[in-house]
Write a structure and sequence with these properties.
The structure holds 3 protein chains of 3 kinds.
Chain A lengths: L10 H20 L29 E7 L7 H10 L3 E7 L3 H11 L5 E4 L1 H9 L7 H6 L10 H4 L3 E2 L2 E2 L2 E13 H7 L11 H11 L7 E3 L9 H8 L17 H16 L20 H4 L3 E7 L2 H8 L3 E4 L10 E8 L7 H11 L2 H11 L28 H8 L1 E2 L6 H16 L5 H16 L4
Parallel strand pairs in A: 1-2, 1-3, 7-8, 10-11
Antiparallel strand pairs in A: 3-10, 4-5, 6-8, 6-9, 6-10
Helix pairs in contact in A: 9-10, 16-17
Chain B lengths: L1 H50 L2 E2 L7 E2 L3 H8 L2 H33 L5 H13 L2 H11 L6 H8 L14 H10 L3 H12 L3 H9 L4 H29 L3 H6 L11 H11 L3 H29 L8
Antiparallel strand pairs in B: 1-2
Helix pairs in contact in B: 1-13, 3-7, 3-8, 3-10, 3-12, 4-8, 8-10, 10-13, 12-13
Chain C lengths: L23 H6 L5 H31 L21 H8 L1 H4 L9 H33 L5 H10 L5 H15 L6 H4 L7 H12 L3 H9 L4 H12 L1 H17 L2 H6 L8 H6 L11 H27 L10
The chains are: A alpha/beta, B mainly alpha, C mainly alpha.
Chain lengths: ~450, ~300, ~325
Amino acid sequence: MKSMNIQKLSRREFLKMAGAVTFAGLLASCAPATVKTAEPEATQAEEIVPTSAPSTNEMVTIRYGRHDAVDGDVENVKVFQEMFPNIKVEQEQIGSFAEKVPALAAAGNLPDVFRSWEAMCLELVRADLMHDLQPMVDVEPEFNPADFYENWWNWPVVAGKRYGIPDVIAPHVCFYNADLLDEKGVPYPDKDNFTWDDYVEKASKITDPANHVFGSETLPIGWTYFHLKMVRQNGGDYFSPDFSTCVIDSPEAIEAIQYWADVLLSGEVMPSPSQIVDVGGIGAVAELMQAGKIGLQHDGVWVMNNMILGGFRWNVVPEPSRKVRDTITHGAFNMIPKTTKNTDAAWKWLNFHCSTKGIYNYGLVGKFPGGRKSSNLIEPHPWIADVPFEVNWDVIPQALEYGHVLPGPANEGECMKIIGDALQAIYAGSAKAKDLFPEIAPKVTAVLQQAA
Amino acid sequence: MVKNSLLLKNRKESLRKLRMRETLTAFGFISPWLIGFLVFTGGPIIASLGLSFFSWKMLTPPKFIGLTNYINMFTTDQLFKTSIGVTATYVLIAVPIAQVIALGLAILLNQNIRLSSFWRTVFYVPAIISGVAGAVIWRWMYHNELGMINNLLSMVGIAGPHWLYDKQWALMALIIKSLWNVGVPMVIYLAGLQGLPKFLYEAAEIDGAGEFVKFKHITLPLLTPVIFFNVVMAIIGGIQTFSEPYVMTAGGPQNATLFLGLHLYQSAFSYMKMGYASAMAWIMFAFILGLTILQFKLANKWVYYENTES
Amino acid sequence: MAANYSTSPQTMSSYSFLKTGFNLRTFLFGNRFNPGLIRQTISYGILITLTIMFLLPFYWMINTALKPSDQVFTAPPTWVPNPPMWKNFTDAITNSYVGNQDTGLNMLPIVRYALNTTIITINGVVATLFSSSLVAYAFARMRFPGKKILFLGILSTLMIPFAVVMVPQFIIWNKLGWLDTFLPLLIPHWFGSAYNIFLLRQFFMSIPMDYDESAIIDGATHWDIFWKIILPLSRPALAAVGVFAFVFFWNDFLGPLIILSTPKNFTLTMYLTNFTIPYMRQTPWNLYMAAALMITLPCMILFFFSQKIFMKGITIIDFKR
């Protein structure tokens, strides 16, 4: 008679259960439909007739989503609020961009104005989630499209439709530690004529592994796009201009990567990746530079902050090149998703943010130059820091003229994984570019052409 | 005679009624989980199963492709095979070692030693440090020149490997790092040890039982439910390991630490192939479920519950 | 097969098999040494060695937190920062990386974030303890059809990686209008957590049925047994669940990151994340570690003081009424 538990179902228990069951039933009935219908509630293909219409008097809230910190655009929001008191701009920080943006898109809840990096911009365009902004630009008085740098202005254009407008741009340039170069008796780079061989030569004169001093900062291996810069400087590219094929198996690309792989592996010019901590992941690898242990580094202009912290005398020249003067310029595009309910107000904000003054204000935060040439004329220039010695500041905005935007291929993640794995092997010395690149190029092309 | 059969019938009736009452009460107790499942978790889980038969970039609606995801997984996806190898190695090594250390520590700290609160906090603190910060610290620790581990090794004359940058050592680095988190199973073992009835030990001591005997015949058997829990959870968690490789190595160098959980995550969000990732998730699920059921069946042989019903 | 110790007092005489007289201790150490001392030495020795190994990374964390900027990346590493920058702790709080965000409240952002985190954490702990113990009790103490399958079902929810569930769940939150609110971080935890259900079920099943049976004879319902017998007897287990839940919610990173978007709702982990936003500036690792340390403090204090609950053994209930 093991467990004949004599239970009296108390009233309390019965009521509890009845309540629970009812509650469950209620909730279940309000439970939303499953995910199968994951289409964003796209507004019908209405043609937008924006901005010339006077603003309504009701209070409207615009969500402006970006991946960086929210205090990045406070000044602009303030001024905008004064200009348009009935439009409230709410800044949203989209942390974990790669996860949250698809989630927002799938839920049909992208912000009213959305600032996205290059590849994601085009992915969203391919998914037909974004408004064509050209009509709005056309109607906007004094927009002055020619004010933008061409390479950026013409990038997010697909089939004659324009989907994004850039704001600030961060180019890659070459920084050098003037004090260290002096110490080693190495002449400064010539800002008008600086080649790869120059760079390597100067760097090898400075390198002194025993004292943990190196001529050049290492190559950020995990950052697959970084190496595109060198490929382009040699006249090659990862992808064809329409992103339909992978052209990494061209002789120029093979030569470029192998050149720098050999430099890295020689150990006489730059520290190996395991010698930098790189805890910050891709991007701002400037630790040893800041510690005064590096002679030259070519990377994004944000490295400047580290240089200043380093406390030594430094200067800036354009990136070294081989066949073509080229560099990467980073930025993002402001877009308006089709799911917005306030296209008019959204455009007003976007237009303001991307105006001369708007871009300038935003640039002040990150100390970056802007996509509008007129923004870069306003003083004090955002990219100029207060240091007690002379620096070739013009190099920075000048880079915007010859620099190129990163590519935005379809299925970018997978493409970058294949290319990245190959680069890892080459930079580790376990394979040669001339063997690997012809192997992976068709694979990447196949991925590029995968139907969505 | 009629009275007897009537009594019997009534007895059966009341038995059934009681059983039904107990069932209803039980479901009352379980109702929180049931409701939560229905409203919050059930839908997404079932959705992910359905999505495994679709191709879904998340930006566009899903497209039905049948079994293509599953077929690709086992034929064309080289990284999948790699990730299985990495994950299996990790689980087979890290889980047993971690459990032994956790149990050993718990026993050690269960004794009446001075400052036991302090010691226990010491071993649990690693588990408290926020995931990303912990991973950053360990990246630093493993650094070839700036890191503590190689610097300490060099003090005794050993040249440490490049750890996270060395194909041969990266996985081992992650395994060692995982041992730093034994605080969690340790705390559970401690709770288990603390809950053991003291009078059993007293009685055993009266009978002259030594330490080892006490351990083998009292502690261990009574701890088996807790050991079972820790092992099952360690395996479930181990197979899904994701955040350490994500922050510390991004799967490198050259996919030496490409865990299944990481490959899945990258498929979902880097390659934007959510359908494929869902298929992988369900294969992972099937495997873990099978393993867990196996453990439950085996548990009947070695796990001892005080309940007379199990 | 392990010896089956029933816990009823009558069977304690089954210990008789131990009266073999063989004593390992005496065998090894004779009657002269105090074996307690040797055992103590070994214990302390192991403890101290392991402690050093375990605390090494933590020491590195403190070390880095106190470093001035130019000593962060030196090679060979600086073991003791000189001078120790205690200022880093205040800098981490007021630093412009994270300090200027308009949180809509007249307070330092970190205070606001700490408040948010506290709300989420306390709710999470209470919710988890309550709902998980309730469900665990049913599986430990009650019989009903489908019990095994249901339990396996509960466990199964742990076997699906979050990545593939995240987007569908996100869509649900969106439909409910719960995005950028605390609701998705508060409400679901009132419905049981599979990990804790499993854990508590194991603990509950280790409690002898004798107490239950006595209570039933006295006319107790399941709720009575649950509330008055099982829960009090499970204090160490509940303390473990409580501490785990606290640490989990306090350090929860992905959940808030996905759900929240305006700073007034952010949590402390997002505070940390903002130190590491790429492309804008290099992360000041000394400040980052200082912030991480400060964030860890409440968990450490909680754990340290919760030891009292761990220490209490079973309180034996007197059934002689």
